Amino acid sequence: MIINIIKCLFIIIVLGVLGLLGLKRYLDCNPIHLGGTGTAIPAHCTVPQERKERRLTMYKVERIKDALDFVCKHERRPPLSAETQALYEYALYQDLHNMWTGKKNDEVWLNAAVYYRIAAANGDYKANIRLQYLLSTNRVRYDGRSNLEEEGELSKLLADSLLATAYYKLFGHLEKRYGVEEPDGSRFGFLRKAADLGNREAQYVLGEYIRGIDDDETEAFRRELTKKLFKCSGEQGYGVAAYYLGIMYQQDKDYKNALLAHHQGIKGGKYNSAFLLSGGFSGKYNESNEVKYFALAPDLERAKRYEMIEDYLYHNEHLQPKVPDLDEIVPLPPAELPAWDGKIAFQRWFEGESPEKPSEALVKKLAAQAGLDWETGFPLKK
Q1: Residue 44 covered by a domain
Q2: What residues make up the domain containing 286?
Q3: What InterPro entries does the entry give (predicted)?
Q4: Are 168 and 145 within one domain?
Q5: CA neighbor of 82 nearest in space, from 362, 368, 378
Q6: CB 89 within 8 A of CB 355
Q7: Distance of CA 261 to the CA centre of its chain
Q8: Which letter does DSSP use for residue 372 in this model?
Q9: Does 66 map to a domain?
Q10: Which stretch of DSSP H or E encloses residue 53?
Q11: What does the mean pLDDT of the chain come to?
């Protein structure tokens, strides 16, 4: 009996001591402030919280890595038929020459839309994308017809040739609140799918979303992921992605890759990249100028050519010109500069004569193949 009482007392004493030690540790880490200068908190109090925060940070980074892991893929663009391209090239020439002075729904754009619509119905993705541009900017409108609805139908049609681009277009319709069901219930389901399948615009937009996340703990990882997305997009000719990639490389003082990125940006039509490289080759700037310094040997002829290209791209931005022939004009050093007439290939095409107007027989043939009215491009009435 006495032994049991002693055991109980011993247990009570041990528990009491442990309780007091726990209370002391708690009060050390959570002091009761009664005025004065306060009490310093012992270092051991912050260790568990720091460990918890490190675990949370590691978990957050791993979750973001799992969700946003990206493998670069380029979208394959299938060959286009000479017949549909005849309609597209003729319509595009009239369309672009109307960009500065044209009025919405004027005859030029309405006629161009017919050619685009017939070519698109026969699988021409270039005509499809350009027609969607005319519709989305309301350059063509039709009584009793919804432009947004036709854009949606064109995007579905586009899936047969450019699936990634079709997903990106559908993402655009969601942004406009067009009634499209999203895969996986995610708001950015179409955007992510488009980027993974290789659409260059989607890769750039996704990169911008990732770059814009306000989270210091994942900033380093997100920066590298953004560069990966921009690089993949820029390699496919998307100038704005290549331009911002070049800026990021400049910030890293990685001037070799910055030069390559901006060169690619010019090919994609980004005049800002031409402006920067013109300054980079001018020899006027040192490392204190973070925008125009590329650690390059001065080359005034290269600087002049970039300046001329920048001037044309800037003053004709409404035409969305590209410079795929840049390596034939300003190849990167150490290649020597070839002779040049001062014009990019797009400029010669635009300033030249119009492509031949497609014959009525060809238009009727292509319209019939797609079950369309050859005069409007809309489905034949049953």
Answers
A1: no
A2: 239-359
A3: DUF6396 (IPR045653), TPR-like_helical_dom_sf (IPR011990)
A4: no
A5: 362
A6: yes
A7: 15
A8: B
A9: no
A10: helix 47-68
A11: 86
Neighbours of 329 (CB within 10 A): 22
pLDDT at 327 over 80: yes
| Number of domains composing the chain | 3
Tokens of residue 119, six digits:
């070519």
Q: For position 188, what pLDDT does the model report?
A: 75
DSSP secondary structure letter of residue 151: H
DSSP state at residue 359 = P
Q: What are phi and psi of 277, to 5 degrees?
A: -70, -30
Residue type, 271: Y
Neighbours of 177 (CB within 10 A): 8
pLDDT tens across 107-136, in order?
999 999 999 999 999 999 999 999 999 999
Which run of H or E residues covers position 80?
none
From 159, 167, 158, 113, select the one nearest 138 (Cα to Cα). Answer: 113
CA distance 11 to 198: 69
Instruction: Report the candidate in 281, 277, 267 with the shortest Cα–Cα distance to residue 344.
Output: 267
Q: For residues 313 and 334, what is the distance between their CA atoms, to the nearest angstrom?
A: 25
| Dist CA 139 CA 132 (whole Å) | 10
